[in-house]
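PT: before anyone asks, these are the final sequences, not the draft ones from last week. 449 residues across everything. Please model them as a single complex and drop the result in this thread when it's through.
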Amino acid sequence: MRPFAYLRPTTLDQTIAALSDPTAKPYLLAGGTDLIVRLRRGHLRPTIVIDTKRIRDLHDEIVAVDGGLRVGAGVTMTSIMRDARVRQHFEALVESASVVGSVQIRNRATLVGNICNASPAADTVPALLVYNAVANVVGPAGARSVPLFEFFTGPGRTVLTRGEILESVDLPFPKQPVGAAFGRITRRRGVDLATINLCGLIDRDGAARFAFGAVAPTPLLATDNSGALVANGADVSARASALRALFSRSRPITDVRGSQEYRNAMLEVMTDRTWHVAAGRLRRRLETGSA
Amino acid sequence: MSAEDVTVHMQVNGRSFALEIPAHHTLLDVLRDTVRLTGTKECCSEGECGACTVLVNGQAVCSCLVLAVEMEGREITTIEGLASGGQLDPLQEAFVATGAVQCGFCIPGMIMAARQLLASNPQPSRAEIQEALVGNLCRCGGYSRILDAVARAADLRR
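LR: through. Structure below.
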């Protein structure tokens, strides 16, 4: 690894100032599970690495806020998986966090880091998109909130501008019972990235939100309010065409993990399968009357 | 921008260290080359194989993906920290008794990952053992006996 300077700021102001220094090429370090690989390969050559883990205003907790949960920048995948409130309200997010890397990776990797890395294949992002996650950003010009579906602008690129930090992510509780499920195709469980991944969410009225990863330059979110995707819907052909419309904007590429043709075929299979799991969960939830 | 050495205080296997180290050195580099504990192995250097697994405050991590300077105030346990008073840890005993060690290169990482599992889940199922070790590769392919060894260690502690 090439040498770089290291800064361990304790306040957001120090961090924003260091990030804004026009003479430096800074990178933020949270869990490091992506950054350090890319530093070693020489893909990134920062002059300074800024460790976010001791910044007092950036917490590593999941806190209750009005109508939802707020996930701090330091929260790891392991913490997401263990949190009882996340498990109750955001089960597809737990499913997606639990397939990121291995135990060792999940103990370090943060949810916010997974977002900022902006990989088209980021496993937690489809779940965050269907749950209407909101990114809370702070920077030299103050704070702003960005719906996550507007956050990504390309592979590795986001709306964050120089000096800005993703401080936390808000997860609003669904306003009515929903069923959600995460799906993923990968070659080897544990260490490989997703060939495709997706998350589907439907509510009682059949309103559906599906999000897809690794099939376009950014994760895609699509919605369907036609009612064709209602959990106990009997019209199979209407459902099939509604599901197909959801991923119509996908344009997968061929790479080492799969061909374009394979990805397109699996989109069809996995979207249907994910709808079935989500619908089953919603039906059980409505039967048992639990929120 | 200068890249000077940084002072880091950490505990390794209960011993306190104050080290002056370059910021770009990983925890793995420092454990092996500065602290001179070579039980922790370097293999893929990108978090895929688990050979470099150590515990940081009880949590299994890949030491190749951690900068040593991040470890300020942290407690690190390596494979050398398990035996005490000349007695092997039950996990180590179980790996020996089961014949789980072939070439041995992956074993320190396997044992440290299993250590976190047994600390939080003393009676894991076979599936839970597999899940805990999903990030540890054995190039000899000796997975069955490694899983047996972890199950045996859990039984020994009962």
